[in-house]
């Protein structure tokens, strides 16, 4: 039977290890997952968020129709939050010792979602494009969170907090489609 008594921290070993490779900053020997893989996954999250920012920004400007003001305001708010997600992922890449990848030449191929803009700028079509994109990132981010497991709690919490906002975005869009 597992009890809390089983948890023994070898503080002496951890103190010795912490003193080694100080240049790695927050990345210590207890980091439980392939760091380069996490950096690469986060760089694809950055690409995804930038593409979502581009799409929402484009749609906010293009929106036409009777509910234009309300939908445009929602797209603008989502766009801001997508850019914030990109910046938070970039900050984490940097903490892990990687280079945040904002390279525009590879953004679209790295992103999980498409930069879809309906030709006629019809509100419902734009709302559906964005809802599809949100549903895709909700699934891919859930997969990332499951893969991270308990190995990198900080990246996991970052992704969980972003996921929570993507779920709110999807919910907002469903409400707007329904009105
Ligand atoms: Fe996002
Ligand atoms: Fe979103």
CATH topology: Ferritin
Order of helices and strands: HHHHHH
Q: By CATH's scheme, which homologous superfamily applies?
A: Ferritin, core subunit, four-helix bundle
CATH class bucket: Mainly Alpha
User: Averaged pLDDT, please?
Assistant: 92
Q: Sheet with the most strands?
A: none
Q: What is the CATH-assigned architecture?
A: Up-down Bundle
The residue ranges in which pLDDT falls below 50 over 5 or more consecutive positions are none
Bound molecules: fe (ii) ion
How much strand content do the residues show?
under 5%
Count of DSSP strands: 0
**Structure annotation, total helices:** 6
Helix percent reads 55-70%
Structural class: mainly alpha
**Broad shape:** elongated
Domain Ferritin-like diiron: 32-179
Cofactor: heme b
GO molecular function, one term: ferroxidase activity
InterPro entries: Dps-like (IPR014490), Ferritin-like (IPR012347), Ferritin-like_diiron (IPR009040), Ferritin-like_SF (IPR009078), Ferritin_DPS_dom (IPR008331)
């Amino acid at each position: 039977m597992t009890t809390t008594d089983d948890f023994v921290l070898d503080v002496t070993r951890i103190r010795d290890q912490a003193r080694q490779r100080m240049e790695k900053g927050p990345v210590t020997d207890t980091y439980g997952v392939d760091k380069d893989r996490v950096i690469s996954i986060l760089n694809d999250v950055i690409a995804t968020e930038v593409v979502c920012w581009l799409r929402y920004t484009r749609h906010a400007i293009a929106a036409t129709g009777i509910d234009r003001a309300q939908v445009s305001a929602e797209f603008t708010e989502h766009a801001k939050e997508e850019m914030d997600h990109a910046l938070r992922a970039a900050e984490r890449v940097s903490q892990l010792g990687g280079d945040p990848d904002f390279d525009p030449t590879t953004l679209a191929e790295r992103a999980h979602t498409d930069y879809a803009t309906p030709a006629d700028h019809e509100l419902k079509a734009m709302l559906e494009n964005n809802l599809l994109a949100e549903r895709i990132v909700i699934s891919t981010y859930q997969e990332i969170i499951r893969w991270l497991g308990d190995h990198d709690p900080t990246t996991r919490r970052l992704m969980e907090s972003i996921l929570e906002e993507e779920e709110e975005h999807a919910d907002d869009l469903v409400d707007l489609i329904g009105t």
